[in-house]
Structures are given as C-alpha cells and as structure tokens.
Known about the structure:
Helix content: 25-40%
Number of helices: 7
Oligomer: single chain
Strand order of the largest sheet: 2-3-4
Amino acid sequence: ENNLKDTMVKLLLLHGVTLIPKKFLTRCVVCNGNINEVFDANEKVSVLNEFGSSTINDEDLHHVYRCNRCGQGYWWSNEPTSSASRVKKAASNLFRRCIRGGVKIEGSLDFFDYINVEKERLIGEKDRLAHADKKDGIDEVVSWLMDSSLKSPFRLKSAYASESSGIVDGERLPFTNVTSDFVGALDYILFEESALRQTGRLSVPTDFPTLNTKKIRNGHLLPSDCWPSDHLCIGAQFSLECEERRGVVMDLATAKEIPASKTSIPSAYVPVHVTPVLDCGCGCVPPILSLFQMAELRKQARAKKEAEKRKKLLS
C-alpha cells in the first residue's frame, strides 16, 4: 500500500502536477457532474436530511456540497463513525505524503488548513536525507520514464487506427471520455501485428448525437442511462498468427481460408465472431460470446423492445 502511495507522489512530481486543495472534491461519483459548495444554512439542512445525516452536529460539520446535475449531497465531517470522517482521514494522509514528497501546492489549504505545510516539508527533507544512499525500484522506473531515448522493441498498432486521412491522431475514435470540461480519447487497444491479426472491432459512438439519442440537455455527457461508465467500452477481436498460415485468414461465412489482403476489419455492434467457426476438431475455440458481444445483444434487445412499444403507441 505504501509503495502505491509513494508511486503516486513520484508520478505527480514527474508530470509537474500542482495540487489545489480547494478542488479536491469536485466530481460527483454518481453522475460525474460538478460538485458545488452549499452556503445557505437551510439548504445545508436539506442536504443532510435528504441523505440520512441529520444527526451530525454543527460543530462536527465543516463543508456541505451538492452535485449540480443529480443533486447528490456530500460533506466533510469530524464525526468518528461517519464515512465522511474516514474519507477526510485518508485524504489528509495522502495530502501529507504529497507535501513531504515535494509536490507543489497552489492556493489556500481550505478544508485542510489544520495541516502544517512547513512542518510536513521538513519531515520529507529529513526522510530523503536519511535514505539518500538507497534507491528503490520506483526511482529506477521513474528515471526510465524521464529518459528521452527510451524506446520499445514492440511495433504496436492501435485496434482503432484509421485507414484514411483526416482523422484525429490517425484514430477512428475522437473520444472515449466525455464530461462537461473534457472530451478526448483516453482508451486504446494496442497489439503486435506480427503475432496477432485483427478480425473485428466493437462499434463505438464517434459523435454527440449518437450518445444523446433522447436529445435532452447534456445527454451526451458520460456516464448516462445508456452509457453507464464515464469511459466508452472499446473492444477488438484477434486471431493468432503462425508461420505456416501467415498471410491468410478464415472466412467465417464459408469456413475457407482466403488471402488476408482481400479482407477488411469489420466494425459492428456484434462482430463477425458471434458464431465462431472451428478450423479444427478439438473444440479449442468454443462458440462463446465475449462480454462486449453479450452487452451489445442486450442493448439491441432493449432498443427493439422500445421500438415495438413506440409502434404500439402510434398505431
């Protein structure tokens, strides 16, 4: 656990991250909306009553927040048995570790004003001097990442690489994460073409209207009722390359081998391997749907059901 925390500090230093304490609690864990502080006394009471914490005393209560999208309530508290108190303790320990590690801080400490920054910096300096002659694995890995000549022996290709020009960064997907203040591609599937041949990919929305089929305000933001994660699910299917069969692939429609140069990678909600064709009698490739195939089939079944319901209403 401590190694993970130390690694976090070193990565923050590596990327030059500056911590802003007053923004530590900014995203809603329910809908990924923005969390705003509540200042009105009556609204504070309303939040606490609504989310089952009306017994918290005023002296234990510090800051109350509410999500601007779903209305979820949050607060910091000193009440020992509250989850807010446990989160506060964990956040404080991580913050102290970052200060001791030399991570930059900007702005006021806000809720964490009880932490003595100068004292924590001194503790960190003494610890580094005491262990100056020791280098752990984390330092070694970080030094590799900082080496501008670092190279990989692998020749990796993206499963969503575009075969045409004019696509952002050569990728089919302009985004895999969409929030109110960020839109971008964060997720990739990389593979070695010499060992794997791509045979299919999961179809993923590439525009906001596809994400927002109900055409409601901010309906394209993730997560939503149709897209339950703040990251879009991507997927790809591959077949293993071997020397004696390199350059050919299996045509699943005819169960015959054809030159790979005459095939293209299908991009569909249910890829072509829905019913795998075995090219041997040992049963080593069982006809089992992948997780994302099953998810897409369920999604299609729901869409069909909704279409039938609308048809009945119109008739």
